[in-house]
Each structure stands twice: as C-alpha cells, then as structure tokens.
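ZP: hey, is the adenosine-5'-triphosphate complex queued? I don't see it on the tracker
AM: it wasn't, my bad. submitting now with these inputs:
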Amino acid sequence: MLPVMKIKLDTDSFSIIGESPQIREVFDIVGRAAGSQSTVMIYGESGTGKELIARALHLNSPRKSKPFVAVNCAAIPHDLLESELFGYEKGAFTGAVNARMGRIELANQGTIFFDEIGDMPPALQVKLLRVLAEREIDRIGSVKSTPVDIRVITATHRNLETAIEEGRFREDLYYRLNIIPLTLPPLRDRKTDIPLLVNYFLTQFNNGTGSSKTISDEAINVLVNYSWPGNIRELANFVERMVVLSIGSTITPRDLPDKVLGEVPREKWAPLANDSESEGNPAQILQQSLKQSFHVGIPDEGINLKKLVEGFEKELLIEALEKTGWVKNKAATLLSLNRTTLVEKLKKLKITNPS
Ligand SMILES: Nc1ncnc2c1ncn2[C@@H]1O[C@H](COP(=O)(O)OP(=O)(O)OP(=O)(O)O)[C@@H](O)[C@H]1O
Ligand SMILES: [Mg+2]
C-alpha cells in the first residue's frame, strides 16, 4: 500500500492531500498567491476542492487571523443576495426593523469567497465592481459609504467566457476577478492521488467511528480506475460508506458496488466459499456468495421485501442449527446472536427441529 503523504498548507486546520504534478502545481500557485492582495478565480468541477483551496489561500495570507466569509451565489435567492452581501440600515425596507451588517462588511480585513460567481445577478455584479474599485460599500438605505478592506476569491465550475459572450457576466468584472486564475484538475486526471486520498479518508472515518478498517491493494486499483464524476467529494463520501458498510476488517473489491467495479466482472473478485485458494475472511466470502445467489434484481412489478428477507433469515438460521446439531447455544454463537434472540426468531419464523 502506498504511504499517505500529507501536504499541510496550514497545520492548524486541515490537510490538502496530493502529490501528483497537477496538484503540486496548484500548491505552488497557492504558495505564491496567498501573500498577495490579488483576486484569485478558482476553476474546477464540482467536488474538486475549490472551497478548500480558497481557505488555504486565506490561511496562508497575512489576513489569516481575520474572518474568512464564504458566500454561495447559487444558493442564496437572488432577491436576498443584495441584503446578504451589503447589509441594510434600519427602516431601509419593510421588515428591516434593525440595521444589519452584510457579509462583505463581516469579511472586513479578511477574505471573502464568492462561490459560483457566475450565478451573481447582473445588478449585483455592478455593485461588486464598485466595491472592488472604490473599496467601500453602501448598505441598503444608507446615505454614506463604509470603507472595507477585503481580499476577494471567487470560484466557478463553468466557463465564464461563455457567460460573457451571452451577456450574463460583465467582462470588466471578470478581468478584475481573474487576476490569478487557478484551475483544479478533476480527480480522473490525477489518479496517482487516489490511493493517498483513500487512505487519508479511511484514517479520518476510522477515527470518527472507532473502527480500524484497511483496504486491499486490489480494491485501491479498482478505485483508481473509476472516473469519479463527483471528484474528491464523491470519493470521501464513498470511503465513509465503505467504512460503515463493508464486512470484515479489510475492504476488498468484493465490497465495492457495481458502478465502481465498472467493466470488471464481479466474479473476478468473488471467490466462492468453497474456493480453498481464496483470500479474505469467511464472513466476506459468505456475504459475497449470498450476494451472488440473491442477486435477482427487482422486477417491474416489485418485490415483497419483508417476505424475501424473512426467507433469507430462515435459511441462515436453519443452516446454523443443522451445523450445530440443533444446539441453540452453539447456533446463537455462530450467528453472533443472544440465545434468547435466536429463540424468539425461531418462534416468529416457526422453525422447529424436524427430527
Ligand atoms: N486535496 C484534498 N485533500 C483532502 N480533502 C480534500 C481535497 N480536496 C477536496 N477535499 C475535500 O473534498 C470535499 C469537497 O471539497 P470542496 O467543498 O472544497 O469542493 P468544491 O470544489 O468547492 O465542491 P463544489 O463545487 O461541490 O462546491 C471537502 O470535504 C474537502 O474537504
Ligand atoms: Mg464549493
């Protein structure tokens, strides 16, 4: 298994993992741009780490002890965005019972991060341009301007040049925001980072859940070959799910879903329980062979889940009882159940000793 190499841009808060040439280039630009006042525009698909990099820029800047304020322009309804950003004076509009500071003012002396800047409505683009040029803001309903000292970082997952051509994004604002462009590569273009990230998230989720799961090299290879359309966010969520759901202490290809296994037939990774050459612990092998025998798919007319699961449970209970000569204590141990739970289940499922 590959060692985890952590690249810490700021030791206090988080690690940004990666050693591929593509991510090293990003680290290099972050290192050089962090100390400046220049605007940075971060490009990247969803889940590539845009917000993480924005925070890294802030935490490596002289402003690091001041606020980092993130605003998602796509998540805040357009009619609320102006008051969110600029704040308002008491009585500025119906419902403005008290004056309120906007997020730009809250970021004073620190950094403001406009996520999905391409979604900022045109009227606000003009106002933002003024903030950048004049270094002051006008709260809604205020007669005087308030000076602000902010560093601006933006992010977008789409091509803003198209938005400019279509008249949805102001070209003058674009040039002001795009002084330092920084492109985050999708995970599929930096596959060498996948093993590092998998191990990093594995350690995190193990620590969080008190488990100590590991992952086999074979499983890592499968993950390296998957395309990760949701990038690092998808990978992190996936590892979390594996830590919770995989059976046995080692995650193997047999634990991975078909989507991730891709073209590789599951059987390649699925030695049956009687395959003496097979590796993996018996619970994993059993789970896999059960998966195979029960993989019937759900027909259009649906299934009766309760009935199917009961049938499945009944078969396993009978097998355990037969194996132990119907000695309930032993069968319960085999199934990791209390004796009383086993007895209740036998009663409920009407299982009796035939002899
Ligand atoms: N290089 C990395 N090392 C460790 N964790 C990372 C790395 N890049 C991203 N992450 C983690 O992946 C998740 C997604 O990152 P982030 O939110 O920064 O992506 P994003 O590009 O802003 O996504 P979206 O477009 O969906 O908003 C976060 O949990 C983040 O901590
Ligand atoms: Mg984001």
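AM: back. Residues 50-51, 115 surround magnesium ion (ligand 2) (CB under 6 Å).
ZP: great, adding it to the tracker
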